[in-house]
Task: structure prediction
Amino acid sequence: MSKAARIVFARGSATNMAAASDVFASNRSAYFCVACGEQLQRKVPENGFPYFTHARRTTCRLAAHYALRAAAQHVLLESRFIKVPLVGGEPGAGRIQSFLIQWTDSIADIEVVHVPVDFLAETADGQLIVEIAIPGLPATAPLDRVERLEVPALVVTLPNPARIHGWADLRQCVLHSVENKSWIVPFAKAQQRSPSLPPKEWHAPSTPGAADKASSSWTSPLVFADNAFYRQLNHAEQLEVLQKQMALPCDQWPAEVDIEVCGEDAFNVDRRGWQADAFSHFVLPAGTDSVACEVAFSDVLRYLSERYWVEPDCEKAARMAVFYYLQGLVVRGALLPFIEDIEEPTYLVAATMTPVAADDLRWTAKATLSASQLRVLSVQAGLKVPIELVQELLESFDDCHPSVPVGEYAVTLARKLHAPPRSVLAFLRDAGLVVEGPPGPASAAQETLF
Result:
């Protein structure tokens, strides 16, 4: 019954959402019920998952449900992408075709033409409404009213709150699963269909329009012929092709195509050649698309193996070279980890943003960073924050900020994280810790922070 559902999520004192299972949850001063606003206390049973209860006995029957809904909105606001199904799958198909939508601006609990909706995102291809359905919780608005808005709208059905134990479970349901999602009004790209292939050969990419990039185990005859032709060219002719793909002369290629990796000689060309080939084919065309493109390790390896001569005794080295090259792109912020499978990892192409110099950024007056923000946004920026730095970061942005300039702090933190400063700057911007504009006068408290 809904009365027995334990409260897993709550609002912190800074109105940020927190999970009872958060590592630093016990260090926060207070938690409040999303439904009634009363104070909660955290409990950690010996055998089981942490949860919240009301500090004072009260009747709040749907507290866990409203908390789950608010946490789902929080996940959408911070993650800025969602995996959605294509419209109309093949009858009896065992796999639902899907693709990802991403956005930069979004808001929760807003009225669209006097109809309250759970979540509204502004993508490059138009607005997207996301309604969150939870068993036992009344809908925010009747779905027929949402349908009459004629705005692309998706319903995400979550399980009973008792089956969600923390952020990992919730993100899987909200962001990655597609079986629990249905369209009220289909998004335009959700109606695009890839051509059907025989069941034994059907390994179509999950991103619409990517079939011509050989991102499946089935390679179209035209692409295969093009790759075979390229392999017959001499090095000078291959370089001419690569310069056209990169849209730059080779002496102006970015550092992302000159990464030293193990096994880089397996393709019998300079590493800048095969890396520029992979980068221009999988990363550059997708960098500005509102639909986040997936890059699978197996797709990149197959593409390069079709375009370069790899000796049988070098196949293992080629796999190693591609694996470490993709990891290098993650470190540099060009790719984001998506499916972290050690054998067959998959990545997302990071959306490109107009670069802003560190000198043009200043600290937000009362900067606040929560543990959940740190967890999500660090992954989104391609940063791996060691546990010993987590508490330092949270304390550095607890209604305050470092006294040093943004650029100097970004360089110092990048050195600690073994990451490029631009990835740190992207993290600081996404977290709302810095803004563009001239620096303001530092307060006495800030001057003595460090």
Confidence is low (pLDDT under 50) at residues 193-222, 287-291, 352-356, 439-450. The CA atoms of residues 396 and 402 lie 6 Å apart. Residues 69-88+96-191 form a domain with the Trna Endonuclease; Chain: A, domain 1 fold (CATH 3.40.1350). The longest strand covers residues 115-123.
